[in-house]
Structure formats: C-alpha cells, structure tokens
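Last lecture ended with a question: if I hand you only a sequence, what can you say about the shape of the protein? Today we answer it with a concrete record. The protein is Phosphoesterase PA-phosphatase related protein. Below, first the input exactly as provided, then the predicted structure, then a couple of comments.
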Amino acid sequence: MNLKWSMLPFLLAPALFAAPAPEPDSQESKNKPFSIIYHPFQGLWDNSLAVFSLENTLYYHLPSVASTTLLVQTNWDYDYQLFSQKNNLMPKTVSQGMLDAGWYMPLVLPAAVYGWGFAWGDSSWQMHGASALQALGLTGGFTMALKSLTGRRGPDKDLANPGTTSSSFRRTTDAADFQFEFWKNFERGDGRFFWPSGHTSSTFALAASFTATTRSWVVGVLSYGLATTMGYAMIDGDHHWLSDVISGALLGHVVGWTVGTSFRNRDQPVKAGSWRLTPMTGFGYTGIGAAWYF
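The predicted structure:
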C-alpha cells in the first residue's frame, strides 16, 4: 500500500465541512451529548425503493446501461483504456493510493462525522453522517448485486501486449466479456466482478449525500471533485473500464442524492401546492401513494 497517496482523501476531507451548513428548521442543532437524533436506518426501506423511482430509472439507471452498451459496442471502452495505458496521465503511485484509500475512506469519513455529531449532540452533523452511512450501505449492496449478476472481467493491464503483466485474477482484452450467470461469478480468481466500479459508486454516493444534506456548493465542488478523481484513478490504474466508472458514478449519485434529500427533508414543513410520491408496502400489496398538500 502506498501510504503517502492513500492518505490524500483524508487530507482533503476536512475541507468538505469548511462551509457552514444550513440547519434543519424544526429543531435546534445542539442537543444533549450522546443523544440520537438521526441514525443510519431511518427511512431505509422507503429510500431503497425511491432509488428506483420512475424518474431515477429514466435519468440514471437506463443511461447507465445505455452508456455501457454504447462504449462496448463502439469499442470506445477498449480504445480509451489503451489510450490511458499509453499516456499515463496520472502517476501510478497516485492511482494505487486512491485504490487503497477507497477500501476504507468511504466508511471512515461518514462514521467520523456521525460520531462527532453523536458525541456533541449536534443534529446537523448526525444528519450528514447518518445519511452518508445509509447511502454507502445501499450503494454497496446494489453495486455488489450488479457485479455478481453481470460477471464482467476487468481490462488487461497491458492491452498492447496482453498476458504479459501479472494479476491476482483473470483479466481480458475484450470489453464485452460479461457473464450473466451469477451463480458462477463468485470465484475471485475468475475476476468477474468489475461492473460497476465500487470505488467510484461509493465515493459518488458520499459526494451526493453530503451535498444534498449540507446544500453547500463548496462541499459539492470538493466532494464531487474527489469522487471524480477516484473514478479517473480507477481507469488510469487499469482497475476498471471507462464504462465501469461511468455506471458507478451514476449509481452512486442517484443513491446518495435520494438518501441525502430524504434526510434533509425529514423535518422540513411541506409547502402548500406541492405533491409527493411515496413507496408503500403491506401484506399482499406493493404500490405508490400520491399526496397533494394544500
């Protein structure tokens, strides 16, 4: 592990909360220390369903599949990977450091934010941390499900001279190397777990969640900038195809924004003339409830 570069996200992370965040309207920001105002399981079921709303499906999930199909069928996935390998726009130490940090940074950062809010009774920080933890959990679950269902192999580390570099699992020169047999896709050595990129989806989920709850453009610029850097590191370090990263970014954003907005709106009064759609489940039925406020 390259410790120097793997610490980069942690050095940048404190700046995410440099700008003051708006506080929820219906309660004071400060409460008794060690009191729970928000927790990561609030609205979990409703939020997990809302991620796949018609709007999110049209704007994020379908474009994710469409972009992957386009990049694979046009051979742009392969061409860009080859371009990246020839030009090395990012030093390998940086891309490897980002990969290393991506295993633990997405969990440590929101846990620290939530822990701070819990210890000091700060509802605002609890909201940021709880929302991010829930977004991270949902994103991780959806990402792993898609990885096992699609069974895609990662790019060979030297497409111009395939098979000449070592790897702990099988790689491919064929960007279309998917295997839609999930019961066969769990063996690590076979390397069928690349679509979408989990490092990218998790960092974009945090960026979207933090931006949605803080409503701060400073947080948005810094967090999405960090997430974009993570995504590019996955390509430049030959850890993922371009389409893996694009799909991971779309998935992470839609989950993080949906969850973050839900937490942010929990204590906000509903404006007259607005309407909401809410997922509903019960014994023997599943549906969507519509409400108009006046």
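Comments.
1. The first strand starts at residue 275 and ends at 282.
2. The longest helix spans residues 123-150.
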